[in-house]
Amino acid sequence: QWNASTDVDWSALSAMRALPPIVRQATANVQTQLHYGELGALMVTSKIVAKAPDLIATYYGSTQVMDEARHVEFFSRVIRGLGVTGQVSPHLERLCKEVFESDTAEELLLGMQVIIEGLAQTTFVEGAALARKMDLEASGIEELKAMNLLFADY
What we know:
Layout: H1 12-16, H2 21-50, H3 55-82, H4 90-100, H5 105-134, H6 136-139, H7 142-153
């Protein structure tokens, strides 16, 4: 288990504030989607823990709740560090709501762990590919290189 306060090099956040406003806004928009997904994961895992059939399952599920809480903390700090807010996609909002309103633990797990987390993983992979295409070393944009280092910690 990692600690967002001590295990992440938050010094990159100051470099991110130096990004051009349009880049900071675009970054905040993407990070807001990830943050919202993690909030959804936190709510869903809490709901699953409440449905746990026994004490061992409750213990195990509660570790997942703590992990999702760390993710929420991470993205909250990143968004605050950018100094701008992003807008949650209405499509993501609707999808998370539908997953949260599921009745069974199986539906909750499938919706959150496969669909929503799959979207988050795709966002990370696509973001890394975009950063490589931008050739950050050649561009000389130190702030973007610092942002990549921050997410490497995540």
